[in-house]
Amino acid sequence: MSSDDRWSAEEDDSQVSKLTRKARDSPFVPVGMAGFVAVVGYGLYKLKHRGDQKMSVHLIHMRVAAQGFVVGAITIGVLFSMYKDYVKPQFKNGAKK
């Protein structure tokens, strides 16, 4: 049996190390997650004081706001990644010439 078929504990990453690696690779993932939690927390807090608004309408608004924050964070992260990979190297190459 080859050594590639064996399981080792070093290959098994914990959830914290996976999240840390993901945050290092794309820093806007934790921002999106934090924003999602903040919007949901605020929505649950405002649940008591929604007035005559129906529960389903309140939950839909809360879901849309949370998804909007996450999509915005992903979009900013993609734009940042594109800048880092494509635009920034051109400035470095232009400065050397």
TrEMBL record:
Gene Ontology BP term (one): mitochondrial respirasome assembly
- For this entry, the protein name equals HIG1 domain-containing protein
At the highest ranks, the source species' classification is: Eukaryota, Metazoa, Chordata, Craniata, Vertebrata
Question: According to its record, what are the GO cellular component terms?
Answer: mitochondrial membrane
Principal place of residence: mitochondrion
Give TM segment ranges.
27-45, 65-83
Subcellular location as annotated: Mitochondrion membrane
- Which Pfam families does this chain map to? HIG_1_N
PANTHER family reported in the protein's UniProt record = HIG1 DOMAIN FAMILY MEMBER 1C, HYPOXIA-INDUCBILE GENE 1 HIG1 -RELATED
- Residue span of region Disordered: 1-21
Extract the Gene3D superfamilies matched here: 6.10.140.1320
Domain annotation HIG1: ranges: 1-92
Species this protein is from: Gopherus agassizii
What keywords appear on the UniProt entry?
A: Membrane, Transmembrane, Transmembrane helix
